[in-house]
């Protein structure tokens, strides 16, 4: 049954008038989508999540408008800056249409039916993500400020994309507050899914659990890196660490890998990975690929593989974010370094290590420098062959909008079969 949105709140009748520091005003005019509570010098009255907040300059002229969020240090999520505008159904349709136009090439590709339609702040909609899985849309909210506008956004998406259904996902922070009768995984438009939703990625069939799966059901952001793995996997033995639902493993198998070994701490995720491989048994390459799966802590599994002297032609390390905030960056870099050393310990000479980071607070230069330094400390001669970043459906729209980066290393440690890890 589709969950009703009739109990959702409406935005307040009065707009909040907000004054800010000169530095905050400069940042907003420079494109920042975030206004922090510490940068606010005055506000006209108390507001509820999702009320509209107008930022004025010292001359009482309009500077920007956004969503008020008293539950977050990012007090205003900026939607528009420059000339005054109305935030109404027409506004949502225009912003969503602009975001969809950026993905026009993907939308016209019959071989790929899953992609990100709205990438939050980078598409001018802070705290809102929309992913498409064929005829299913998944909206994920990272702030309760979207609840008063959810009906309008849903109507605009239906008008624009004509989906069969729309599923709502809530971040932990949002799910823990007042959700107005909605729960994570509810269907808010169309018939609820009766099971996993199927989609295609470069003509490979995959499934996503859009109701209970991680994020919105699948990690769409690694699509381009999966294609690269597919192009280089012929005849290779592949180790896919933090495999999740097996996107990299399937790509490698489809590219002619002789074997894939998937590692993840989630048994259900690996079961889905096995299903994704089975969905593609029409391909001889996938049928011939030997598949192994290990449930366990990635770091410990890598140690165990090295002790057993197991080596692979391609090792893929795609961990979750290690830095939830700026204070966690040093600890994250240390974790990346340890992961590099452990990964290199199971790469064959002449093989390839692919290591990714989705920690937005770790820059690409910091990440690559850490990886290269870790390789040097492990005594492995490596050569950087490629760096990759965001795909077209995950655009970077402001200074801190980038998070995904990956580095490809060719291992040149003659006669060692890899490095002895520093545990």
* C-alpha Rg (nearest Å): 23 Å
What form results from the Cα inertia axes?
globular
Contiguous runs where pLDDT drops below 50 for at least 5 residues: 415-423
CATH class of the largest domain: Alpha Beta
Helical segment count: 12
How far apart are the termini?
52 Å
Strands side by side in the biggest sheet:
16-15-14-17-18-20-19
Q: Approximately how much helix is present in the residues?
A: 25-40%
Q: What do we call the CATH homologous superfamily of the largest domain?
A: Vaccinia Virus protein VP39
Q: What characterizes the major β-sheet?
A: 7 strands, mixed
Identify the notable features of this structure and list them briefly:
globular, 28% helix, 3 domains, Rossmann fold, Archaeosine Trna-guanine Transglycosylase, Chain: A, domain 4, 423 residues, Transcription Regulator spoIIAA, alpha/beta, 20 strands, disordered C terminus, single chain
């Amino acid at each position: 049954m589709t969950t009703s949105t009739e109990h959702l709140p409406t935005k307040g009748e009065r707009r909040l008038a907000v004054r800010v520091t000169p530095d905050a005003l400069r940042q907003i005019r420079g494109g920042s989508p975030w206004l922090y509570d510490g940068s606010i010098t005055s506000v006209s009255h108390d507001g509820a999540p999702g009320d509209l907040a107008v930022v004025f300059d010292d001359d009482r002229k309009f500077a920007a408008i956004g969503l008020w969020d008293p539950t977050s240090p990012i007090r205003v999520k900026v939607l528009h800056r420059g000339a005054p505008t109305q935030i109404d159904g027409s506004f949502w349709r225009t912003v969503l249409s602009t975001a969809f136009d950026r993905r026009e090439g993907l939308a016209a590709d019959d071989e790929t039916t899953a992609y990100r339609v709205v990438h939050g702040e980078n598409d001018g909609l802070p705290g809102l993500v929309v992913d498409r899985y064929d005829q299913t849309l998944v909206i994920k909210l990272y702030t309760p400020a979207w609840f008063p506008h959810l009906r309008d956004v849903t109507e605009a998406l239906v008008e624009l994309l004509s989906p069969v259904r729309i599923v709502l996902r809530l971040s932990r922070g949002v799910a823990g507050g007042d959700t107005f009768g909605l729960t994570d995984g509810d269907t808010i438009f169309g018939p609820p899914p009766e099971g996993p939703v199927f989609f295609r990625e470069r003509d490979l069939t995959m499934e996503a659990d859009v109701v209970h799966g991680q994020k919105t059901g699948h990690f769409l952001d690694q699509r381009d890196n999966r294609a690269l793995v597919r192009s280089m996997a012929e005849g290779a033995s592949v180790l896919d660490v933090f495999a999740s639902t097996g996107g990299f493993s399937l790509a490698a198998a489809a590219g002619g890998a002789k074997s894939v070994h998937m590692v993840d701490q989630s048994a259900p995720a690996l079961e889905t990975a096995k299903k994704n491989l089975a969905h593609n048994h029409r391909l001889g390459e996938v049928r011939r690929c030997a598949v192994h799966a290990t449930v366990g802590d990635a770091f410990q599994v890598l140690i165990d593989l090295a002790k057993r002297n197991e080596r692979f032609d391609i090792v893929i390390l795609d961990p979750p974010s290690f830095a939830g905030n700026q204070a966690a960056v040093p600890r994250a870099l240390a974790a990346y370094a340890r992961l590099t050393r452990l990964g290199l310990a199971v790469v064959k000479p002449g093989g390839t290590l692919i290591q990714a980071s989705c920690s937005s607070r770790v820059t690409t230069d910091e990440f690559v420098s850490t990886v290269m330094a870790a390789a040097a400390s492990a005594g492995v001669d490596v050569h950087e062959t490629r760096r990759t970043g965001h795909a077209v459906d995950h655009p970077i729209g402001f200074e801190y909008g980038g998070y995904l980066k990956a580095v490809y290393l060719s291992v040149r440690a003659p006669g060692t079969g890899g490095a002895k890890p520093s545990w």
